[in-house]
Specification:
- It is a single chain.
- By secondary structure, the chain is mainly α.
- It has a domain of 35 residues.
- It has seven helices and two strands.
- A two-stranded antiparallel sheet has the order 1-2.
Length: 152
Amino acid sequence: MGGYAPPPTISRGFPLPLHPTEGYDKQCEKYFLNWDEAFNSTAAQVGGKGHNLARLHRYGFQIPAGGVLTSMVYRDFLESNGLSDHIFAVASIKAESVLDPAIEKTLTEIREKISNGQISEICIQDLSRQLTFLKLVDNQWQSGHQQQLKIP
């Protein structure tokens, strides 16, 4: 019987893509969304916390000015730093296996790659542009922090 099979899910019921970069169109997605844009997005696009903060903003609660980085930033970071396949490969590790020396070594290597990774220039430019537009940073801040943001 070839019926519908729902996609695999992670905790909290969000769909788990078959691969971290599968099914996403880079041209259509922004890197940074203000709270109104995040409200009109899905939790898969802005993360659960981002989506909930956007909802709080929409309903008049006091939250910090700004917005949220989209999941595209995460996917772009994984791709540009050669981490996509590594993350996908360890996604099925069970908690009781984490202390296995081989798995521990793999996880340590992934942590190091993440720590040494660089955020893409296009992401930094979009974030800088949006934060400047929202008057959360000025041009002087941008030029002084480019090195800290690890722009390639």
